[in-house]
Amino acid sequence: MDIEDLAQRVSAGERRALARAITLVESGRADHRAQAADLLAALPQDKQALRIGLSGTPGVGKSTFIESFGMMLIRKGLRVAVLAVDPSSSRSGGSILGDKTRMDLLSREKNAFIRPSPSQTHLGGVARRTREAVRLCEAAGFDVVLIETVGVGQSETVVAEMSDLFLLLLAPAGGDELQGVKRGIMEMADIILINKADGDLKPAATRTCADYAGALRLLRKRPQDPEGYPCAMTVSALEESGLETAWEAMEKLTAWRREHDFWDRTRATQARYWFTEDVKQRLLARLQEPEAKAALEALSDEVAAGEADPSVAAQAFVDRLGG
Amino acid sequence: MDIEDLAQRVSAGERRALARAITLVESGRADHRAQAADLLAALPQDKQALRIGLSGTPGVGKSTFIESFGMMLIRKGLRVAVLAVDPSSSRSGGSILGDKTRMDLLSREKNAFIRPSPSQTHLGGVARRTREAVRLCEAAGFDVVLIETVGVGQSETVVAEMSDLFLLLLAPAGGDELQGVKRGIMEMADIILINKADGDLKPAATRTCADYAGALRLLRKRPQDPEGYPCAMTVSALEESGLETAWEAMEKLTAWRREHDFWDRTRATQARYWFTEDVKQRLLARLQEPEAKAALEALSDEVAAGEADPSVAAQAFVDRLGG
């Protein structure tokens, strides 16, 4: 594979080259990993997209929202990429993006690019691959990269760690319940969007929005937020209402953060975080190499048979691994 | 430190030597780690205690239960050690065992040994240290090792992975609610104990017990369980009632598992698990060594400044680490 050529074609915004490049970074093969590193190193570092993380449990209308919101951005002349982080997708096949037909219009737009979650059960692996895919989309000149997650396990944290903005999409709740949204997730959100503010559900959506706005006011003020953020608002992905207002809120927040130096600082912190995570992953990946794996299994048998203490055997193994 | 001598004194059941040995395995210092490995290797491998994991949130009467249950075992002529896994203890100081005075009688018994959780925020570290402390207690001839946890984060899983039996201690619930016990934790439990079956709370305890018994019957049958297990029963740690019945249930289950080869098989599986975990921890610990740490920080600065891609820098770092 000609990596230089691929890097150039990705940078020129060719969608097929982008798809191929993502397939490369998703591969676990050692030679592919080396090629992927070369590819990433060959890409220009100067293009930045707005990375928007989007979390919402199944049933809140996430794919409809992405479709409507994405089409609105396309109409504004922006290029939109959609990626997914779903560590469960290999087991359940449950990723929304596994089914592109649910984003019928967007998937046919030449200025849109939709990519399902890499199928892998290990969140760390999905995270690294998705982050590299984000970089590829940026190099390919996309203006907005939407990173969606269904919020299984720690996946919201993973997505928030690679996003400039984090959106939480919710459905109208009955009564004044706060849908059991974990406090930690609330604290990650920059904007909470109550979807389905249409038809019969509109009053419930308005009430739910007020509840969340109240809850957000109780959270400690974060340095990266201007007055009035984080905020809650209603949208209807179905009727395509509220989307402009939501986009304005995102643009305003982004502009403020750029101006007050939080944009660069957050990206730098995130880059450090991913670098450290990546080092750990690669270090642990050594245990999967054939020789190490065989030695590990042999020692594991001794430990299971009670012939060696786990700690003592572990020390011996790591010493032997050298380095 | 004379490790041979320490190993002998631990094996002779000297409590002060045991305390000193646990302090050694809890230390993070490299020279102490090496000595700890020597110590563990020098211990006899043939003594086994009954390892009982005990989980329960604050307020269910865990320390009172340990006191009453432990004293009952002592009266039976058994030697009882109590250890804790509490990854939050260094932050909150919240470990029950941090306050030995709450187990007033037990802490004064010469056949009892109580040790609070090693103070560390990292669950992996706490887990390894606790598992090594269990081994030391076994070598010191304790018959029962109780490993308690308040169930923060993944700590129940950690404790279950080092236990022969796993107990879940609960308080009586109002109405027919199941106290929001996570399904995963229910599935780990061998015996659910509803505490505080005394005074005004007795009817509620009986009802809660029936609710859990019903819920347990809905779970899939596990191969390691004889007929009638997992089970739920009421106890009163305060009035010391139900404890004999609970102990009989534990003995019966243990005997069945020994007879049907599940005891050895579970221990072998656990030993494999801990060996693998320990290898990973030790591998990652290399990143904390001065030279690696300095190199990591320098590269991290480059990554944060946008001069290098996180993946590319990570690959370069791991290559340089060698091995």
From TrEMBL, chains A, B:
Which CDD domains does the annotation name? Answer: MMAA-like (cd03114)
Protein's UniProt name: Methylmalonyl Co-A mutase-associated GTPase MeaB
- Keyword terms, alphabetized: Hydrolase
* CC terms in the record's Gene Ontology section: cytoplasm
Give a yes or no for keyword Hydrolase in this entry. Answer: yes
Q: Which NCBIfam families does the record associate with it?
A: lao, PRK09435.1
Output the Gene Ontology terms for molecular function.
GTP binding; GTPase activity
InterPro entries in the cross-refs: AAA+_ATPase, GTPase_ArgK, P-loop_NTPase
Name the EC number(s).
3.6.5.-
EC category name: hydrolase
Organism this protein belongs to = Sulfitobacter sediminilitoris
**Cited SUPFAM superfamilies:** P-loop containing nucleoside triphosphate hydrolases
Top-level taxon: Bacteria
In terms of Pfam families, this protein maps to:
MeaB
Q: Which family, according to the similarity comment? A: Belongs to the SIMIBI class G3E GTPase family. ArgK/MeaB subfamily.
Residues in AAA+ ATPase domain copies: 48-220
